[in-house]
Request: fold
Amino acid sequence: MGKLNDNRVFCPHCGADLQGDPIPEEIQHHYGATHSSRKIGISSMKEDCVIKWQCPDCKGQWKRKL
Reply:
């Protein structure tokens, strides 16, 4: 198995680190990542997917890159 993503992302508005808690090593392969994310996904009923993200600290929002 290749290297897993650590979900290291920073808020484009306030610079907060959005990497969450570590995922237990024995189940990381289910998530494809070593850590959870603190980003809040905002979805659209019309598009039936996450369309933008929100920072839990500053509440700033940005479009999801597809």
In short: Residues 20 and 37 are 5 Å apart (CA to CA). The mean pLDDT is 92. The longest strand covers residues 49-54. The two ends are 25 Å apart (CA to CA).
